[in-house]
Write a structure and sequence with these properties.
The chain is mainly alpha-helical and 70 residues long. The protein is built from 3 helices and no strands.
Length: 70
């Protein structure tokens, strides 16, 4: 178990590593929403609805490559 201060310190360190990794490979800031095609707040809609949204997005964005799975 760790206290809140240590948890925040670790989260900040992990975020810096993620940003560095993403910046190196993608050439952008991972926290910039303009970098992504789709952003979903799963805390407000849940994972099942998020999965449905992703599938819908893919079928609209890439119609020629989409295979319908029921």
């Amino acid at each position: 178990n760790i206290d809140e201060k240590e948890a925040r310190k670790r989260m900040t360190a992990v975020d810096k590593k993620r940003n560095s990794y993403f910046g190196y490979y993608a050439g952008d800031d991972w926290k910039n929403p303009d970098t992504y095609d789709l952003c979903i707040d799963t805390s407000s809609i849940g994972l099942e609805a998020a999965a449905d949204l992703i599938c819908s997005y893919i079928s609209v964005r890439f119609p020629e490559e989409t295979v319908q799975v029921d």
